[in-house]
């Protein structure tokens, strides 16, 4: 770099990184021109989705902090009886591991997509969809269990009625996202398998689908921490 | 770093598969750790600190490696990461609101609300 002629202020105060941002936003051009348009759009969608889920979680925080009846102990509510023992929160732990595994296979699918490995990409995406479907299945089981125990969006035999409202709202909306993700994965995986992206020469769709899928996993990280563990 | 257009535009990013397997392993370990916080009945401030720490570490790994944010241009990174910081204001406002609602219920509704 031409450090000898660089002006002192430029070098010390305005770092090269900041200058790059300034030029991206001000140089009479599209800011994200270096990024595939689909990827930029997916990121912007995910940003809006971040706000939706954050509003749900903030609403949950408000309701829980203002509830006068005791909040149910999630470790007991979501315990499963395996081999005669009640293991606390085990169903949610399994769901977490399943979703993380799906993220792992998805990341590898994106990688093989960019290596133009059609077969491995399609197989890994199908595996991801399978993990996702398993997650939704376990969530359906969890909902059934709680509904049988009398938990409703407006009431709850274990304590604060707000528990039911936030539980069904947050996990339901997340489950909807997972279900949409499974459908998206199946569509893109079948396009990969049929060689669609080999003909267009652009495997970005796999990465964009991957962004969505990792986001679903990311949201679960926050739900797991705040709703189940707190 | 400054002048080149990220290779992702043309040929995609090439990272060894072992990187993803490693991150996968870390995520498993972190999840197991946060589960054990509950399993071992850790309570109070230690519990909350541990939960938040493991949560942020997991979120960071997913965002930076799995979602490739570590290799994106800074303009995109900041456009994604800065706006959610506004939510901290919402959280602060709603903490005050929740406190108010709780005391109102406790004082005027006999704690039964």
Descriptive overview:
The complex is a heterodimer of chains A (230) and B (113). Chain A is mostly helical. The longest helix of chain A is centred in the last third of the chain and has 32 residues, at 162-193. Chain A is globular, with a radius of gyration of 23 Å. In chain A, 73% of the residues lie in helices and 3% in strands. Chain B has 113 residues and is mainly α. Helix content of chain B is 67%, strand content 0%. Chain B has helices at residues 17-39, 44-66, 74-81, 87-108. In chain B, helix 1 (17-39) runs antiparallel to helix 2 (44-66). Residues 1-10 of chain B have low confidence and may be disordered. Chains A and B meet through helix 2, helix 3, helix 5 and helix 9 of A and helix 1, helix 2, helix 3 and helix 4 of B.
- Helix/sheet category of chain A: mainly alpha
Mean pLDDT of chain A: 90
Taking the alpha carbons of the first and last residues of chain B, their distance comes to 59 Å
Q: What oligomerization state is this entry in?
A: heterodimer
Radius of gyration of chain A: 23 Å
Low-confidence stretches of chain A: none
SS field, number of helical segments of chain B: 4
Structural class of chain B: mainly alpha
Instruction: Give the helices and strands of chain A as they follow along the chain.
Output: HHHHEEHHHHH
Task: Spell out the key features of this protein.
heterodimer, A: 230 residues, mainly alpha, 2 strands, B: 113 residues, disordered N terminus
Quick take:
The complex is a heterodimer of chains A (230) and B (113). Helix content of chain A is 73%, strand content 3%.
């Amino acid at each position: 770099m031409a450090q000898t002629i660089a002006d002192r202020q430029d070098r010390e105060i305005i770092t090269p990184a900041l200058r790059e941002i300034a030029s991206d936003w001000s140089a009479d051009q599209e800011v994200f021109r270096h990024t595939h348009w689909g990827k930029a759009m997916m990121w912007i969608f995910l940003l809006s989705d971040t706000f939706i889920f954050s509003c749900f979680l903030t609403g949950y925080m408000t309701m829980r902090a203002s509830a006068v009846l005791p909040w149910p102990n999630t470790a007991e509510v979501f315990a499963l009886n395996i081999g005669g023992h009640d293991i606390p929160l085990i169903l949610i732990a399994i769901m977490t591991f399943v979703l993380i595994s799906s993220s792992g296979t998805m990341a590898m699918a994106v990688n093989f997509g960019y290596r133009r490995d059609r077969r491995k990409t399609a197989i890994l995406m199908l595996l991801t969809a399978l993990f996702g479907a398993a997650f939704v299945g376990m969530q359906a089981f969890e909902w059934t269990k709680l509904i049988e125990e009398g938990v409703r969006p407006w009431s709850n035999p274990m304590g604060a009625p707000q528990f039911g409202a936030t539980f069904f709202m947050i996990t339901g909306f997340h489950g909807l996202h997972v279900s949409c993700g499974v459908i998206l994965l199946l569509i893109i995986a079948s396009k990969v398998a049929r060689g669609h992206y080999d003909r267009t020469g652009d495997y970005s769709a796999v990465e964009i689908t991957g962004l969505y899928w990792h986001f679903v996993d990311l949201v679960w990280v926050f739900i797991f921490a705040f709703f189940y563990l707190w | 770093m400054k002048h080149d257009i990220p290779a992702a535009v043309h040929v995609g990013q090439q990272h060894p598969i072992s990187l993803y397997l490693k991150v996968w392993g870390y995520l498993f370990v972190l999840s197991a750790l946060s589960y054990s916080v509950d399993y071992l009945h850790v309570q109070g401030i230690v519990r909350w600190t541990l939960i938040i720490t493991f949560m942020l570490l997991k979120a960071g790994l997913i965002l930076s490696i799995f979602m490739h944010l570590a290799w994106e241009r800074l303009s995109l990174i900041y456009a994604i990461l800065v706006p959610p910081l506004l939510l901290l204001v919402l959280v602060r406002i709603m903490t005050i609101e929740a406190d108010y609602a709780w005391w109102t219920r406790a004082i005027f509704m006999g704690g039964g609300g």
